[in-house]
Amino acid sequence: MSKYGQRNLDWFEALVNKLGGEDGVERFLRDELVLVERQAQTVPRQVNLAKLVAMAGSGDTVSTEDIEKCLELKWTIEDGVIYPTLPPTTGRTGEEWFAHFKQKGDRVDGYAKSVLFSKKFLPTTGVVNKIAVLPAKLWKDSDRLTKRIRKDACAGIFTKGQKLSDPNAEVSCLIRDYLTDEEIEALGLWYIVGMHEPIKDADGHPHLIGAHRHDDGRWLHAYYDDPDGQWSGHGGFAFSVPQVSSQN
User: Is the pTM of this model over 0.90?
Assistant: First the structure.
């Protein structure tokens, strides 16, 4: 009797299927196929400059220990929802964002440029946005409509009842500037669109802007805001998380 006799046939069939069928099993037994243990994904970290400056005070140097204390994860994931740690806003206007992206070599499509240059693009200064990115895969294809996504986010369906709201459009620029395409890929996404209040382009059509990774480089894309529009399952939708004030 096999020492694995307590396993049923379904278990053995699943194992054979995982190895690519009978041919895969034969290759494995001939040492032509090697199994490699999956490594845990390491979330990149960044230095919180504001915290580092405050810690340094009037001193000219900071220690390695000081820098280590100021490192923070670029994102966390809870119940499938992604929470990126964005830097504070700097008052950068849409025109300045456009120039910044061009200088970095990032691409901005024509509709996104129109949104950036709109008077409705309103920058802020010194705001730390807490953002939740809801992966598109949380919805089945038929439900992944703009109006449904907004409704579920507002109701807190995926955030334990915590109601999300529309972010400022500049959040999309922060995400594009903050996350590399490799990091967006590591999150399992192709795009992250800010679900801000739609801004009309030069032709009067409402658009949202967001980060999109392509084979030809980093993009800031505009997406037509159609309440009944259906999204692909390969992206994420960025909403604002309400700020909770401390009570004394």
Answer: no
